Amino acid sequence: MLTFDNVGMRYGTGPEVLRDVSFSLAPGSFHFLTGASGAGKTTLLRLMYLAQKPTRGTLTLFGKDVVTLPRAERPDLRRRIGVVFQDFRLLDHLTALENVALPLRIAGHSSAEIDAHVAELLSWVGLKNQVHAKPAQLSGGQQQRVAIARAVIARPDLLLADEPTGNVDDRIAVRLLHLFEEMNKVGTTIVFATHNQQLISRFPHPVLHVEQGEVHLLPPGSNPFGPETNGGAA
Ligand SMILES: Nc1ncnc2c1ncn2[C@@H]1O[C@H](COP(=O)(O)OP(=O)(O)OP(=O)(O)O)[C@@H](O)[C@H]1O
């Protein structure tokens, strides 16, 4: 589904922020992604959702070589990926319901179908009473849940989440993790970046750990930061 082969990445003429990265994600797999602040997690995710090309090496996504992929073919691959951005990226002039509905509208679903489905999902993430609120009227944690709902609504093949539970309390974080688990059970491949060691201990998924520009694959339940740390959170 996704293969990195000796990938390196630098911004402009700066140093390589990722180097010699090689790993594969099998279809239907679930990985946590960890690393201290600034280690390169967001950069790795940006490569995965085609916002960035590697500066060296080979990256294959859905059987296509991303480096040589013609620009015109990129949107087709991109549509198969759901992303929860660290800074949410909701559209300010749209309500929660309209934000979440966007991927379904783009895919051409009918309004009645969309409204029922979106309202149900927003209710599931605890925003039943906020469906008509605009982002500015929502707390950070509520905006984050809208962003998660928008990323999962169209059932992407690959779901990438950058600290998707960073703004909610532990109870809601566990509930949201269950939503990702449900998606994973029906076939979505998931990469979930987090500093939350409690989640990593509780859910049995392997860990991609970024350290000094290298990516290491660790077994489920690993604590890459050691018991005395808070996970390297900034
Ligand atoms: N647009 C950019 N231009 C230049 N350097 C960048 C850019 N974005 C990130 N970097 C650098 O790349 C490195 C990795 O950053 P990245 O955002 O991928 O880390 P991160 O692990 O996601 O951090 P955090 O946990 O704080 O979000 C950092 O040294 C950062 O300064």
Walk me through this protein's architecture.
This protein folds into 2 domains: 25-53 and 70-80 and 156-234, Rossmann fold (3-Layer(aba) Sandwich), CATH 3.40.50.300; 90-154, no CATH class. Helix content is 31%, strand content 24%. It has helices at 41-48, 74-78, 96-106, 111-124, 140-152, 170-185, 197-202, and strands at 2-10, 16-25, 30-34, 56-61, 64-65, 81-84, 158-162, 189-193, 207-211, 214-218. A hairpin with a 2-residue loop joins strand 9 and strand 10. Helix 3 packs across helix 4 (111-124) and helix 3 packs parallel to helix 5 (140-152). It is globular and about 45 Å long. The two termini are 32 Å apart. Mean pLDDT is 91; it is low at 229-234. It binds adenosine-5'-triphosphate. Adenosine-5'-triphosphate binds at residues 11, 14, 17, 35, 37-43, 234.
State the order of secondary-structure elements, H for helix, E for strand. EEEHEEHEHHHEHEHEE
Structural class based on helices, strands and sheet pairing: alpha/beta
Question: Into which percentage range does the β-strand content fall?
Answer: 15-25%
Give me the number of helical elements: 7
Query: For the residues shown, what is the average pLDDT?
Result: 91
Shape: globular
Compute the separation of the termini in Å: 32 Å
Summarize the main sheet. 6 strands, mixed
Strand arrangement within the widest β-sheet reads 6-7-8-3-9-10
- Level of helix content? 25-40%
User: Can you tell me the CATH class of the largest domain?
Assistant: Alpha Beta
Number of domains: 2
Strands, count: 10
CATH topology of the largest domain: Rossmann fold
- Please name the fourth-level CATH homologous superfamily of the largest domain: P-loop containing nucleotide triphosphate hydrolases
Bound molecule kinds, no repeats: adenosine-5'-triphosphate
CATH architecture of the largest domain: 3-Layer(aba) Sandwich
Q: Low-confidence spans: pLDDT under 50, at least 5 residues?
A: 229-234
